[in-house]
Specification:
- This protein is of the alpha/beta class.
- It contains 11 helices and 9 strands.
- The chain has a 7-stranded mixed β-sheet, with helices on both faces. Strands 1-8 form a two-stranded antiparallel ribbon.
- Helix 8 crosses helix 11 and helix 9 crosses helix 10.
- It starts with a helix and ends in an 11-residue tail after the last helix.
- It is elongated.
- It has 2 domains: 197 residues, Vaccinia Virus protein VP39 (Rossmann fold, 3-Layer(aba) Sandwich), CATH 3.40.50; 66 residues, Orthogonal Bundle (Helicase, Ruva Protein, domain 3).
- 37% of the residues lie in helices and 18% in strands.
Amino acid sequence: MRARDLIREARSKGILPKKGLGQHFLTSEGVVKKILEGAEVGPEDVVLEIGPGLGTLTFPLAERAKRVIAVEVDKGLCEFLREKAKGLPLEVVEADFLNWDLSALRGYGKVKVVSNLPFFLSTEILFRLLENQGLFSDLTLMFQWEVARRITAQPGSKDYGALTVMVRLYSEPKLLFKVSKGAFFPPPEVDAGVVRFSLREPPKGGIETLRRTVEGLFSLRRKTLSNALRKMSPLSKEEIQGMLEELGIDPMKRPEAVGPEEFLKIARALEEKGCSPCRGRGA
């Protein structure tokens, strides 16, 4: 089913993109082909797609995979997809993914996730997937270009930040390719990027302390670790110096140069000392 035919038929049925839902339908068949190749979808895969829209990606997925579960919040689009899905291994679920019961996936083994995400909800969706990663084999997701760059940034770069660190503690993200805004209907204001995530064992311990440590340190990214930790914890300068030396981390490093595993070590050390880090004063 060609993208232009899907759009023409949807228009004839009065189905138009809804700005309030952040709908930008993928129209480039070349981009769809690159996503399928990048995600390595095969005949044994069960695939979850979040926000299938008109089905430009959905139907090619269903032609390759063992089964596709497409979760869509828009009732009109669900009806459109179900009508077109006859004879295909495609299940359309009408639901808000952020509130959908993921236990529905438990009977399928490890599920592959392939989606063009709504930009304004993309990081929330990503973290729900990462925090429930036991259900999934890998993720191939489209984000707005700026977010894709931040997710895949390296320590010391201007795009490296709290989002990068938190994502890398759950996965190994790889930027596959950039997508022009002209590949969508209607075109968004920015380009997009496709990222594939190889999942890893999630960090042990309290996620909240970890998140607060990472966000607090990045709010003071131009300060040294020693000075930043003084501002966001009750520990003395001597206690912080000793803690960092024990962890093998240079106290003169700036947060923007600290690797994800080092952030994890700092968060766990603060936890052991009974500290609850907060956002730095004056940040």
